[in-house]
Amino acid sequence: MYTYQDLQALQAQSLKLQGWIRRQTYSPELEKTLRRFSSWEVSELIFRVNQSTFRGRLAADPSLPAGEVEEDGRQRWFSLEEINELRRRMKINRKTLLPPRPQGKRAIRAAIANFKGGAGKSTVALHFAHAAALDGYRVLCVDFDPQATLSHSMGLSDVSEDHTVWGIMARDLIRETDRMNSAVTGAASGTALPQRRLPASVRDMGLEDLRVADFIQATSWPTIDIIPSCANAAFVEFASAQYRHLNPDWSFFAAVARYLDQIPDDSYDLIIFDCPPAIGYQSMNAVFAADVLYVPSGPGYWEYDSTTSFIGQLSEALEDLDAGFSQVSFPAGNAGSPKAFLDVRFLLTRFEPGNDLHRAMYDAFGKVFGDRLAEHPIELTRAVEQSGRFLSSVYEIDYRNMTRETWRRARATFDRAYGEFRETLIKAWDEMEDKA
Ligand SMILES: Nc1ncnc2c1ncn2[C@@H]1O[C@H](COP(=O)(O)OP(=O)(O)OP(=O)(O)O)[C@@H](O)[C@H]1O
Ligand SMILES: [Mg+2]
């Protein structure tokens, strides 16, 4: 028989060997670095202009970044910083190379969510973040999943739970409780509302002293930052239940939305959430902070089934929040109720165009969800399989490392899906109300 004590012993053993296992399984490259992009990629795949036009423009203006020539050929290879400088300084056919962004609005937030495990959420989040960065956007990713797939893929593995969504939630509890208490103190006499007390264990963590920027970390992509997660952040699910008890008026589900509102509007363009495969405090925060909900699903019948129950559970959870919090004594800023998304889309992943079942499921999803179904599914591809320590996106993989055809097809399927995602976001962004 195994009790918690046996599990403790197993964990102690596992921790002891963790360093050794890491060394055995890590690739020699300990830090993730971003490769350069060839002039073929920059012109045809990133700027979508003719390669000779692009080369001509570079030759005509020696002050433009010129990239580096690699030993193996005549092509020039550009860093993402150089690509972004070219984007700012070059116009082709009088058209800007900068991506569209509505003026005077905050970043748009998209949650990639499905309670079904393995639906492809993290793969989609990673690829959309990379595609958006190559498109010229500044991206913030938020990893809501203690499995931390996205954080690991972006090269972050030593993360303390204070600096995850868990820390953001605990910090919010302290700030919100203080706000409520000072409102009670400041109110006219006759108020029956009690002061809410938080135990020293919550206050002593020092989280209220953390600044907004303390939660945000850089990645190997110069225009992608991340609020990472880690395994210990799983405790948030327990801790949050206790926190709610400490202050029942705390709108726990709006903690991350409140936090994101403190980031200056023009720091980022897109904020992408990778969600855990479960309904809980973290996923409710993700959903609540999102403007747009993007729901990936595998192309099988059971996945259709779980996606259906996901929508049901989510709608019930949002209804409960609406019922439970519309009457609280301290309506929180921007915890507007009921939650309304600007758009909701379903996206099939791991799709095989030659598979009859997949095609039938695509038609079925289309019948059920109509134009909520993204037209372009993401195809199954060998190009996204994990290689070595880091999961890499097709955008990160150098096309010289595999057959050009495999790479091109993989890239094309993610490009098409990203193109639709971008269209959805821009439409929602235009509809998004300016901050009051
Ligand atoms: N288009 C694809 N082609 C090939 N493999 C894929 C594709 N999309 C996802 N996978 C693989 O499927 C597995 C699950 O994907 P992923 O981690 O993105 O799912 P998830 O929904 O984030 O899972 P979880 O619910 O555990 O967070 C991974 O091994 C991933 O490499
Ligand atoms: Mg995941």
TrEMBL record:
InterPro entries: AAA_dom, DNA_Partitioning_ATPase, P-loop_NTPase. SUPFAM superfamilies: P-loop containing nucleoside triphosphate hydrolases (SSF52540). Residues 111-311 form the AAA domain. It comes from the Bacteria. PANTHER family: P-LOOP CONTAINING NUCLEOSIDE TRIPHOSPHATE HYDROLASE, PARA FAMILY PROTEIN CT_582. This is Chromosome partitioning protein ParA.
